[in-house]
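Now for a typical sample entry:
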Amino acid sequence: MSTISTPGTDAPSVETPDYPMTRAAGCPFDPPPTLHTLQTEAPISRVRLWDGSTPWLVTRYEDQRALLGDPRISADSTLPHYPHAGAGQKERRRQSRSFIAMDDPEHARQRRMATGSFSIKHVEALRPAIQKIVDHLIDELLARPKPVDLVQAFALPVPSLVICELLGVPYADHDFFQANSKVLIKRTSTPEQGRAATERLVDYLDRLIGDKLAHPADDLLSTLAARVRAGELSRREAADMGLLLLVAGHETTANMIALGTLALLQHPDQLARLRESDDPKVVASAVEELLRYLNIVHSGRRRVALEDIEIGGVTIRAGEGVVVANDIGNRDPAAPRPRPAGHRPQRPPSRGLRLRCAPVPGPAAGPRGTAGRLRHPVPPHPDPAVGHGPGPDPFQARRAGLRRLRTAHHLVTAAKCRAGMEEPMKVIVDQNKCVASGQCVLATPGVFDQREEDGIVVLLTETPPEDLADDVRQAVALCPAQAIWVEEEGDKQ
């Protein structure tokens, strides 16, 4: 039986708690205890926001995944009852609206103008430059008097330098954009503060777009300026997109570096395993586990229902706000791919980090010898004589080998199918839904690739070798847009 609601009313028999909620003092990494209770007892329930509105809070992984893939749910922040995170952020969205607060087709059109620069190949090409930045900052950090402020000396400069390099923003202006970015993401900023910070940053990005129109370079702002010149974007739209990329490109990563370091220091056995391994899969697994465990964004994904939606015994009415709490969703023990707090799903025990709540370390804790400098391990102190020139595509050899393997596999599979012995797995991709996250390429580079111009997934084979079947299923589970699925023999019975 469904619980029926009307906009602005509370769900029956459930006290409406304030959102966001207070964390437990002894475990700063863990979602608030109230979220755990709601996930168990009232997984889709009302919460009260800063402005008194009472949107639905969704806490279970499967419900979250279903809603985020439902076309009846909108990300359009201009709609009535959109659950804004704060007064300042509401004003920011009113002044500067980027594609993450839009629906398709405009969302896809604008997003694909930027995603090509974030494809796996493009990011890999940046590795030498990023490695040079990281090495330099670590050397400076280790040479400083102790203790060292990890955030100011390392966690914030690394992503700021990288996003400046990628966008074509002068790093000399980092104090300006970092200070204003903090105002934009702060939940307690007033509308006046949000408006002023937005105006300063949009004006700044608009001037840079103007510079790129006059003097284009090899950077993302120049790419957006070219879209302006071609009439595909307005200059304001380009500035708004640049603002999104600049803010999101350094704040989230800075927090991830700092909190990830702290989490590893609280789990010395896991830190030791990471330091001792030279297996790239161990580092990749550690990054994914830290992202799941820490879940940097704790304000939820904000949406509005366009139609009545019945889910989890609740009817969300058209026009009602929805908050998808991905931090607690990543801790859901009932998910098909188990996601409890201390386990990385589908990782062998010898590979995965196992992170649990631990007391906050004392002031003596420090960043002694960072081992995992980048996602894949590299020599800790590269020979300066070698330099930092661009290296080969790290997936090239794997793809070549997999092509040979696929050829043999197809011949064998075809023979088996003709003999009625085997029905192969078939992979299907919806490119219109793809958001170019590249997760599938990282999971199975022999099956998936990305288009050069926009990073959209390309299927290299519809029938992958049997030994890649589990990796393909992992790619399906990881796809944030639910743009990949498989048909297997059991599905047709």
About this structure: The chain has 18 helices and twelve strands. The longest strand covers residues 301-305. Residues 190 and 205 are 22 Å apart (CA to CA). The first helix runs from residue 33 to 41.
